[in-house]
Predict the 3D structure of the following.
Amino acid sequence: MYLVFRCSKCGRHLYAEEGCGTRTCPCGKKINLKKVNVLSRAEDEREAGDRVRSLQMAGKEMTGFSRAG
């Protein structure tokens, strides 16, 4: 089981395995998973990644990537 949550420093959506104690965000903040506000739960890593992507892009029309050429 995977937990989907949000970093309190930068607002990025992340996921981690439920049994883990901490997760470090790319912004550098170390997050204690026992104190995190769980937004969603997922059965496997692929589903958790899909949920994070959909939450991260909610309300935005761009993906953060530009087209080549």
